[in-house]
């Protein structure tokens, strides 16, 4: 899990370095080239924001004992992103003031400046459309995850219902087995009782026979 976070860190470092370099170049450019660079920076900042969201999700999956260190690193990255956004905002404000000054102060080039402004608005519109498409894709992905989660939940409920039926059947078999064991125990107890009674009768019969033999021998000897 931490390897994914470190991979995101590398992407963050590379992209923010590019953004810093481009923000520094904005004041040195003009016209269409400047407009395109501003739009490019805006797009990369959006990518960094999405990257931060991924990093935040990864931190939540890291074991608690290691999470504090990653939270600290994530906090510093967020602060760096906020600084980049402020620097970019100042550059855009300066650029807007520059365009406004050109539109109001130079009537001869007003048509060209208006064309540049229209191109900028068109580029912004395309950029916003792309953002909406990315948001729609994320929503669709979230919806798909929700559907899959619901399916998994239904499967779990179905399995639990099946397991409950199996447990109930096992309990019924256990009751039947217990009843059969009780019946067998009573039968064995009765058989044991009869065996003991038969042994007692055999013992008594043997004693009677032995006593009869002794008496017969005694009277026979006495008669002689």
Whole-angstrom Rg: 47 Å
Strand content: under 5%
CATH homologous superfamily grouping of the domain at 2-105? t-snare proteins
Write the H/E string, N to C. Answer: HHHH
Distance between the termini: 115 Å
Fold-level CATH name of the domain at 2-105: Methane Monooxygenase Hydroxylase, Chain G, domain 1
GO cellular component, one term: late endosome membrane
Membrane topology: Single-pass type IV membrane protein
Domain T-SNARE coiled-coil homology: 124-191
Coiled coil: 34-180
Question: In words, what does this structure look like?
Answer:
The chain has a domain at 2-105: t-snare proteins (Methane Monooxygenase Hydroxylase, Chain G, domain 1). The chain is built from four helices and no strands. The protein has helices at 2-25, 31-61, 64-105, 110-223. It is rod-shaped.
In short:
The chain is an all-alpha fold and 224 residues long. It has helices at residues 2-25, 31-61, 64-105, 110-223. The protein has a domain at 2-105: t-snare proteins (Methane Monooxygenase Hydroxylase, Chain G, domain 1, Up-down Bundle).
């Amino acid at each position: 899990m931490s390897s994914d976070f470190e991979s995101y860190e590398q992407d963050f470092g590379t992209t923010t370095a590019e953004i810093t370099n481009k923000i520094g170049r904005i004041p040195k450019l003009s016209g269409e080239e400047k407009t395109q660079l501003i739009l490019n920076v805006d797009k990369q900042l959006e990518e960094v924001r999405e990257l931060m969201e991924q990093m935040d999700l990864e931190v939540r999956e890291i074991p608690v004992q290691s999470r504090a260190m990653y939270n600290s690193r994530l906090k510093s990255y967020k602060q760096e992103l906020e600084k980049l956004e402020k620097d970019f905002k100042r550059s855009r404000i300066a650029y807007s003031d520059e365009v406004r000054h050109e539109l109001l102060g130079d009537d001869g080039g007003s048509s060209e400046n208006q064309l540049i402004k229209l191109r900028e608005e068109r580029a912004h519109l395309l950029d916003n459309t792309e953002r909406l498409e990315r948001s729609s894709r994320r929503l669709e992905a979230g919806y798909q995850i929700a559907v899959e989660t619901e399916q998994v939940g239904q499967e779990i409920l179905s399995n639990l219902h099946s397991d409950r039926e199996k447990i109930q059947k096992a309990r019924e078999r256990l009751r039947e087995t217990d009843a059969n064991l009780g019946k067998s125990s009573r039968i064995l107890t009765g058989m044991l009782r009869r065996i003991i009674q038969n042994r007692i009768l055999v013992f008594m019969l043997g004693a009677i026979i032995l006593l009869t033999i002794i008496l017969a021998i005694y009277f026979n000897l006495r008669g002689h």
